[in-house]
Amino acid sequence: MTMRTIEHLHMFSIALILSIIIGVSVGIFIYMKPKTANPVLNFLNIVETIPDLALIVLLLPIVKLGAGPTIAACVLYSILPIARNTYTGLKNVDEQYTYVAQAIGLSPKEALLKVRIPMSLPLIAGGIRIALVFCMGVVTLGGLVAAGGLGTVLQNGIQLYQKDAILVAGLWTGLLAVLLDAFAGLIEKKLHERYGTW
User: Fold this and answer.
1) Among candidates 179, 160, 181, 157, which has minimal Cα distance to 169?
2) Which residue, of 31, 36, 38, 98, has the greatest Cβ tally within 10 A?
């Protein structure tokens, strides 16, 4: 169980880090290019409608069996909440902060990096928290395509009718999800306290 937990968290961590990098980048891009916002977000919404397992199976011919399809599916599902919240956060920063940035001589790029992005962190953290839940669920399903992790324990338990294995793996997976969500919620709360909302 320990090795499966490590595998599970390894896949989860890789997927979440990639999701954050891509999601925040997409959010910044569509903020800077407003005409692309609706098409990009609509496309990501379409991806969200594909069932988890179906998306993993669709990725199999491209990424093959193992952790690859699971990580790829996690990333595809998780880009939307992060990109959407990043875009919304950047767009809704109070203009008084922009005026102050201009008054002290910051360029638009400097204002983005030093003012808008920091002020958007509470919303970005909220998007990451949603992505975290998506990733945990998809990584668990990855056991069906030999990705490893706790999903494999559940899959083996179902195939061999091992009720104890199913119960322990299910409870442990649920507990991990709750703990990670609580940790993300704490970070989100701290960011709200520091930067407030608008």
Assistant:
1) 157
2) 31
